[in-house]
Write a structure and sequence with these properties.
By secondary structure, the chain is mainly α. The chain is 69% helix and 0% strand.
Length: 306
């Protein structure tokens, strides 16, 4: 009996290792998660509050600035975006706003930012696992990650952690592919992803800082093992590492420079719960003409409590 099971397992593994079948299985797994989340959002009517309400309100503000007919031209829209004040970086809010622009404004569409982030996480997990295992092993790793309860259920909510998880996985992947910061292209891509993660939450880099330090040290060690071109190899690792830092700073610095008061004030002081009430997230499309008067009364400064 055990030999028959082993033969069947080996046959299944061989089939899943075929590229087309592996990609079709991965696509099927992702579609199952998307369908489950869409069904849940359709039948669920939970109250959006606390952090989820705050981020949904932020996405609403960016959507209004990008899509409302009250603004004419890129200049006015950029000015409207600049007037949005928030202690949180904007990447998750912008993602929610873009989804509303693509599929129509509703709270459920905005909250789909969690599902999009979850899909990116699964794709990243597959790519990381594929570097270590065959296709069948990578699919198994991706399936396990996809059905971890806190990730599976949490993907239905609009939370910073969903997007940070996706960016962290892809940061790890680019670190691995950089071969110890010896490859400029992958090092640069790591820097861009790093900047995007910090543009999601200020301390996002802490999740992959140990890995990046280890990869950098490994690159230096490998460079020292090239006696013929040691100095050149060491210089390449240092330059590529510095390049990744510069690119990350270029990505996140503009927003942080414009919102520096939150870094020195909001996050360094204690805030009592209920001190500042959350804004209500409307069910009506705020970019429509008939909603313009209502939206005009809503302040563009998104505030919340910790």
């Amino acid at each position: 009996m055990s030999s028959e099971i082993s033969e069947e397992t080996a046959a299944l593994s061989a089939r899943l290792s075929r590229p087309r079948i592996a990609y079709a299985t991965l696509a099927g797994l992702i579609l199952i998660h998307i369908a489950a989340n869409l069904l849940w959002l359709r039948v669920d009517d939970h109250v959006i509050r606390i952090d989820e309400e705050f981020h949904a309100a932020g996405a609403r503000d960016y959507y209004y600035a990008l899509a409302a007919p009250a603004y004419d031209g890129i200049g006015e829209r950029l000015q409207a975006i600049g007037e949005i004040r928030s202690p949180y970086p904007p990447l998750l809010h912008i993602l929610g706003a873009l989804l509303a622009m693509l599929f129509g404004y509703s709270r459920d569409v905005i909250v789909l930012a969690g599902t999009v982030s979850f899909v990116l996480t699964l794709l990243g997990c597959y790519r990381v696992a594929r570097e270590l295992f065959a296709r069948d092993g990578a699919l198994l790793c991706t399936a396990i990650v996809g059905f971890i309860p806190i990730l599976f259920a949490g993907s239905r909510y609009m939370a910073l952690e969903n997007l940070i998880a996706a960016l962290t996985v892809w940061a790890i992947y680019t670190l691995y592919r950089s071969e110890g910061f010896r490859l400029a292209g992958w090092s640069a891509l790591f820097g861009l992803i790093n900047g995007a993660a910090i543009l999601t939450k200020p301390n996002a880099f802490a999740y992959y800082l140990p890995a990046s330090a280890i990869v950098f040290c490994m690159g230096l060690i490998w460079a020292c093992r090239e006696p013929a071109n040691r100095n050149r190899a060491l210089g390449r690792v240092v330059v590529n590492g510095g390049l990744s830092i510069v690119l990350a700073v270029l990505v996140f610095l503009p927003w942080y420079a414009f919102h520096r008061e939150y870094l020195t004030d909001y996050w360094l002081h204690e805030h009592k719960g209920g001190e500042t009430p959350f804004s209500f997230v409307e069910t009506a499309d705020p970019a429509l003409e008939e909603s313009a008067e209502t939206m005009a009364a809503v302040p563009h400064e998104s505030t919340g409590t910790r």
